[in-house]
Amino acid sequence: MMYAGLDLGYNAVKVVGDNRRASFPSAVGTPDRARFALNGSGAGAIVLVEPEHVLVGEEAIQQSRFLARREDRRWIESEEWYSLFLAALTELTPATVADVALVTGLPVAFYDDKERVTARLLGEHRAQREGRRAQVLKVNQARVIPQPFGSLLAAVLDDRGAIADQALARAAVGVIDVGGKTCNLLSVNRLTEIGKETASVNVGGWALVRATRQWLSQHYPGLDDLRDHVLAAAIQARELRCYGEPVAEFPALVDDLAADLAGQVIAEASHLWNGGATLDAVLVTGGGALLLGEAIRKHWKHARLVADPVHANATGYWKFARRLFAQ
To answer: Could you tell me what percent of the chain has a pLDDT over 90?
Structure first.
């Protein structure tokens, strides 16, 4: 049995297994390929030839003429979502047949969709990557939990799924999970969700991408048609180049936009958590945490960035899978 934690987000897919973890952009595109390369860059490319012939992740961003990226609630019903799910499992194992016990998460606003997601995850899935034999991936057990719970579980549980941090397990904790489309605000007391203090805010990393694109259209029109994931990566790195030279104003622009977004998140969380004074800790996680974490930490003295915020949810799901399903 392979235990897996899957965080399939609008921006990126993160997956953690017993012996491997992986992440790649949530991009699915047409199967266009480079005709010639000297650097072997295609060696690790995710190219599914079954059930559909598509490029996934970085390869899709670089090579596909047409790229699919969605941000709507019905994304979980799409072929793009299914391709990302299969690609994630094939990243964990090359085995021709694999039994999988899986935990994943949904944004708190969409958590009522958990039964639909569980039904799509369970069962036999057939996939084949370019250069590999066909695989049969049998998801025998699956559980869907509120997305930010993963980061709390990553901090509370050890690699066998046992409680390692008793103090945090008994505490009142707020989790701020900054994703691509949404920011999930989760309140937990003794590992139990406090529903009236839990919500999704419809802001996230893509808001920075849209604001940056608008700025580029005014100041650097040759860069305003960059693909979303390329621009998101530039924002994360705080570096963008034009005609081979760094755009000097770009780091300050990113800092200003991130500060505005952090202010909105802090305002929403403060309202939801009555200022945050009754919480023992505030955990900041998600890919956007690398941009907003410092501003949030300055606002609340008991706030901290979780270890490896990009993979924290997937790591927590994997640990919880071991706790739930290991015999």
So the answer is: 57
For the chain, give the secondary structure using H, E and C.
CEEEEEEECCCEEEEEECCCEEEEECCEECCCCCCCCCCCCCCCCEEEEECCCEEECHHHHHHCCCEECCCCHHHHHCHHHHHHHHHHHHHHCCCCEEEEEEEEEECHHHHHHHHHHHHHHCEEEEEEECCCCCEEEEEEEEEEEECCHHHHHHHHECCCCCECCHHHHHCEEEEEEECCCCEEEEEEECCEECHHHCEEECCCHHHHHHHHHHHHHHHCHHHCCCCHHHHHHHHHHCCCEECCEECCCHHHHHHHHHHHHHHHHHHHHHHHCHHHCCCCEEEEECCCHHHHHHHHHHHCCCEEECCCCCCHHHHHHHHHHHHHHCC
Q: Is 143 left (phi over 0), alpha (psi -120 to 50) or beta?
A: beta
6, 314 Cβ separation under 8 angstroms: yes
Predicted structure pTM score: 0.89
Alpha-carbon distances of 5 from 14, 65, 201, 322, rounded to whole Å: 8, 31, 24, 10
With a CB cutoff of 8 Å and minimum separation 6, the contacts of 57 are 13, 24, 25, 27, 45, 46, 87
| Length of the chain in terms of residues written | 327
Per-residue tokens: 249: 């104003």
**At what angle are helices 149-156 and 312-325 packed, to 10 degrees?**
70
Residue 23: which residues within 8 A CB-CB, separation 6 or more? 12, 13, 14, 15, 310, 311
Of 191, 194, 197, 146, the residue nearest 166 (C-alpha): 191
Shortest CA distance to 188 belongs to which of 178, 179, 176, 180?
176
Rounded to an integer, what distance in angstroms lies between the CA atom of residue 108 and that of residue 145? 9
Q: How far apart are CA 11 and CA 245, in angstroms?
A: 27
pLDDT in tens, 200-230: 887 777 788 888 889 998 988 888 788 877 8
